[in-house]
């Protein structure tokens, strides 16, 4: 069956332009775009189709594009990080990178004339940004300590890579999956603490035993959007590890061919599951798979509270450790990236890992090198023991670069949290997530305290404000939080957060 749906008269504008020309088609036109420059480009190519290559036009900074990579399980080598640092360095003060809430990297300041060269350099170190935006499958997440966690159940690194390779044709681009009804998220958890937020993915694989065999129970339909947020529900299916790719492709194919395309606010996978009913949806997936699905195992193996991996931890390999560094709101500059590449080479095994909390892990550090590692100046910037509130702070991009944003997020989040850490003693980290608009990229619904950007009226003026979410639970028995307070002006927020921290999270004013 063709992957390009025939648009009906009522089809939305996205379906129409996708049917006119596949997003991936711009790959062949990159040299031309580089020559003519961003201003002369066709508007739909520039603002939409380029996202099929992971290149995002930023209306806030016209001419300076963002590039979103694909890093399955958030793993990047030091050689790759160095190439990315060189790319960012070229743009001076405009260049930076962000670690994303999908364990990924986004580069900023990119000029279209440099993209062909950047792609060549990325390819030389095995990196791709293909199909990372618009109606494609996003970065495949997995435990950030896969393969090194002493207590892990399944090392998911190869599985995440295999799913990505199948969907993207090994990074070259795969027309079979470039016209989904909407974006699509896949997570593969092999750990005991649900470090991937399984519950907020369109497909999540969570470890489960069936008749003594270790495989995965499958959850489907989790998503956030401005209009609706849902936790994933069980598909009532269990698969062996070697069936993960096939099942992912079968679900994607059903979604591609049957998914709802009329209204983009009602196009994510859960809307199709609602439309067909779970039983019928499951039957469609079986038909696509060509074999019946095995019913879910009675229980999964997610038994732990979620870990943040910041600090020093022994690996399953004797005498080796992984060290989690806190990266304030995930923001990196070129020198930071060079420094991370260097410490991964000097102390580790040339590997850097990223977490969905927007932090970094350097694995494979021998016991004998720990003491000297701890003297590295980079740990002054990226602490292994940050203050408890800063430690668990997550923030989406916000108004600095994102045109959907209703508020500024990253800088404001850091400013407020530093003041609160100075004023309060918190016995444990409190997960505060900021997101600049209802799209919820900063996942406020999974947080202890989630702050979702909005606009409010105060003294006759429109001002930046937040809706406050609480009650999000991660790890075992994860559950989404809900909105507790609406339209809190950002300028009035700090005392309210302070009160919430004291009343609900055992914080004490310092000096008492
Ligand atoms: Fe997101 C759109 C940033 C994770 C839900 N997201 C956007 C855009 C591309 C909008 C735009 O074009 O400006 C943002 C780019 C801003 C920029 O310049 O950085 C953007 N999303 C991000 C990132 C960078 C936030 C971050 O600071 O970490 C995350 C990138 C992840 C990645 O590496 O691929 C990011 N976005 C998420 C998540 C969280 C997750 O996946 O766990 C969600 C909620 C989960 C979900 O998708 O179900 C999320 N982003 C959205 C939505 C709402 C989707 C919907 O169904 O309505 C949009 C808007 C859209 O797609 O129309 C959106
Ligand atoms: Fe932009 Fe809104 Fe996503 Fe933040 S939540 S990155 S403001 S789209």
Total E-strand runs:
24
- Name the CATH superfamily assignment of the domain at 156-189 and 196-305: Sulfite Reductase Hemoprotein, domain 1
CATH class of the domain at 156-189 and 196-305: Alpha Beta
Overall mean pLDDT score? 96
Separation of the first and last Cα atoms: 69 Å
Spatial order of the strands forming the largest sheet: 1-2-5-4-15
* Major sheet characteristics: 5 strands, antiparallel
Q: From the helix content, strand content and strand pairing, which structural class follows?
A: alpha+beta
CATH architecture assignment of the domain at 156-189 and 196-305: 2-Layer Sandwich
Which oligomeric form is depicted? single chain
Helical coverage, percent range: 25-40%
Beta-strand share of residues: 15-25%
The value of Rg in angstroms is 22 Å
Total helical segments: 15
Tell me which ligands are bound: siroheme, iron/sulfur cluster
Say what the CATH topology of the domain at 156-189 and 196-305 is.
Answer: Sulfite Reductase Hemoprotein, domain 1
What does this protein structure show overall?
The chain is of the alpha+beta class. Among the domains are: 144 residues, Sulfite Reductase Hemoprotein, domain 1 (2-Layer Sandwich); 76 residues, Alpha-Beta Plaits (2-Layer Sandwich), CATH 3.30.70; 120 residues, Sulfite Reductase Hemoprotein, domain 1 (2-Layer Sandwich), CATH 3.30.413.10. The protein is 27% helix and 22% strand. Strands 1-2-5-4-15 form a 5-stranded antiparallel beta sheet. Strand 8 and strand 9 form a beta hairpin. The longest helix is centred in the middle third of the chain and has 15 residues. The protein is globular. 51% of the residues are buried.
């Amino acid at each position: 069956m063709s992957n390009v749906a025939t648009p009906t008269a009522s089809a939305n504008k996205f379906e129409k332009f996708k049917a006119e020309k596949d997003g991936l088609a711009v790959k062949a036109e990159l040299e031309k775009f580089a020559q003519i420059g961003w201003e002369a480009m066709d508007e739909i190519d520039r603002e939409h189709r380029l996202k099929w290559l992971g290149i995002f036009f930023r209306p806030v900074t016209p001419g300076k594009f963002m590039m979103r990579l694909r890093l399955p399980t958030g793993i990047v080598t030091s050689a790759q990080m160095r190439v990315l640092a060189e790319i960012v360095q070229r743009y001076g003060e405009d260049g930076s990178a962000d670690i994303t809430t999908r364990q990924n990297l986004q580069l900023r300041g990119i000029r279209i004339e440099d993209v062909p060269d950047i792609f060549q350099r990325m390819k030389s170190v095995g990196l791709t940004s293909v199909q990372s935006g618009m109606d494609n499958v996003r970065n495949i997440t997995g435990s950030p300590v896969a393969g090194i966690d002493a207590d892990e159940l399944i090392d998911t690194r190869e599985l995440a890579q295999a799913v990505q390779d199948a969907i993207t044709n090994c990074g070259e681009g795969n027309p079979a999956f470039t016209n989904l009804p909407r974006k699509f998220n896949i997570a593969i958890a092999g750990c005991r603490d649900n470090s991937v937020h399984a519950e907020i993915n369109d497909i999540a694989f969570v470890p489960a035993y069936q008749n003594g065999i270790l495989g995965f129970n499958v959850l489907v339909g989790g998503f956030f959007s401005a209009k609706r947020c849902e936790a994933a529900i069980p598909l009532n299916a269990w698969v062996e590890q070697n069936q993960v790719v096939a099942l992912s492709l079968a679900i994607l194919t059903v979604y591609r061919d049957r998914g709802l395309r009329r209204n983009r606010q009602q196009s994510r996978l859960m809307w199709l599951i609602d439309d067909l009913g779970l039983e019928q949806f499951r039957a469609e997936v079986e038909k696509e798979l060509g074999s019946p699905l095995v019913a879910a195992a009675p229980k999964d193996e997610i038994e732990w509270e979620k870990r943040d991996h910041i600090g020093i931890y022994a690996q399953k390999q004797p005498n080796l450790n992984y060290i989690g560094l806190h990266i304030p709101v995930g923001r990196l500059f070129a020198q930071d990236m060079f420094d991370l590449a260097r410490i991964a080479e000097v102390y580790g095994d040339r590997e850097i890992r990223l977490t969905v909390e927007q932090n970094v892990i350097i694995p494979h550090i021998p016991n004998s090198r720990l003491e000297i590692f701890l003297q590295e100046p980079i740990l002054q910037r990226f602490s292994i023991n940050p203050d408890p509130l800063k430690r668990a702070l997550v923030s989406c991009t916000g108004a600095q670069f994102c045109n959907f944003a209703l508020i500024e997020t990253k800088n404001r989040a850091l400013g407020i949290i530093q003041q609160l850490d100075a004023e309060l003693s918190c016995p444990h980290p409190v997960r505060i997530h900021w997101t600049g608009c209802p799209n919820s990229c900063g996942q406020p619904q999974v947080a202890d305290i989630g702050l979702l950007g909005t606009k409010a009226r105060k003294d006759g003026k429109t001002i930046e404000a937040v809706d406050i979410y609480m009650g999000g639970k991660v790890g075992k028995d994860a559950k989404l939080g809900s909105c507790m307070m609406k339209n809190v002006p950002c300028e009035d927020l700090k005392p309210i957060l302070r009160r919430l921290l004291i009343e609900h999270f055992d914080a004490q004013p310092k000096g008492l």
